[in-house]
Amino acid sequence: ALPQVVIIGRPNVGKSTLFNRLVGKKVALVDDQPGVTRDRRFGDADLLGMKFQLVDTAGWEDEDPASLPGRMRAQTEVSLKGADVALFVIDSRADLTPLDREIARWLRGQDVPVVLAANKAEGSSGDAGIMEAYALGFGEPVALSAEHGEGLADLFTALRPLV
Ligand code: GDP
Ligand code: MG
Q1: Domain coordinates of the chain in residue numbers?
Q2: Binding residue per annotation — 13?
Q3: CA 92, 98, 104, 108: dihedral to nearest 10 degrees?
Q4: CA of 15 to the centre of ligand 2 (A)
Q5: Residue range 114-152, pLDDT digits in tens
Q6: CA distance linking residue 41 with residue 54, whole number of Å
Q7: Nearest bound ligand to CA 90?
Q8: 3-state secondary structure string, the chain?
Q9: Which residues belong to any copy of the EngA-type G domain (predicted)?
Q10: Closest-lying ligand to the alpha carbon of 9?
């Protein structure tokens, strides 16, 4: 089986854009357990010739803040089951949000390597956010632009030892 990379992050950071960028047209739509992880999408990704199964998660989109911790724990555990790498995506052009920090906290407690991707960094427009992202504790963030296809070589370099 292909190694599995699971894309994790709050809504609107560009997870699905990255998924589509790496999977291209070979997209499989998979119904998943309702109410636990909605709309997980699986696809065979090709990143500069490196192949892996990519999972796009959307389960945190309609999150009720009051139930956040418990729900997020369930989401994280289900999504990361069988994952070789968690690809944690943030928006490098926005300040880190409480949800970003909460996801980071949960990921630190999971037994899976984390690669941090600072998206929306086309033309180095996200420099400030990339510096802030160091503080999340996952090492050097990979600056990329899913929309413009920038930073993919750096993403390759970060993922290569883990898949
Ligand atoms: P998701 O909710 O994390 O899956 O995010 P989406 O992939 O749906 O993207 C949310 C918004 O961010 C959309 O308007 C995208 O066009 C935009 N977006 C995604 N990637 C980039 C990027 O690299 N640069 C910029 N500027 N916008 C992006
Ligand atoms: Mg999405």
Answers
A1: 4-162
A2: yes
A3: 160
A4: 5
A5: 999 999 999 876 677 777 898 899 999 999 999 999 999
A6: 8
A7: 1
A8: CCCEEEEECCCCCCHHHHHHHHHCCCEEECCCCCCCCCCCEEEEEEECCEEEEEEECCCCCCCCHHHHHHHHHHHHHHHHCCCCEEEEEEECCCCCCHHHHHHHHHHHCCCCCEEEEEECCHHHCCHHHHHHHHCCCCCCCEECECCCCECHHHHHHHHHHHC
A9: 3-163
A10: 1
Using the structure block, give the residue that is written with the tokens 């994790």: 8
Give the pocket of ligand 1 (CB within 6 Å).
9, 11-17, 119-120, 122, 145-148
- Structure ipTM over 0.85, yes or no: yes
- Ligand 1 closest atom vs CA 144: 23
Least confident interval from 14-23, 29-38, 90-99 = 29-38
Task: Give the whole-number percent of the chain exceeding pLDDT 90.
Answer: 55
Fold of 4-162: Rossmann fold (3.40.50)
Residue 29 CA to ligand 2 centre (angstroms) = 13
Q: Report the side by side order of strands in the sheet with 85-91.
A: 27-29, 41-47, 50-56, 4-8, 85-91, 114-119, 142-143
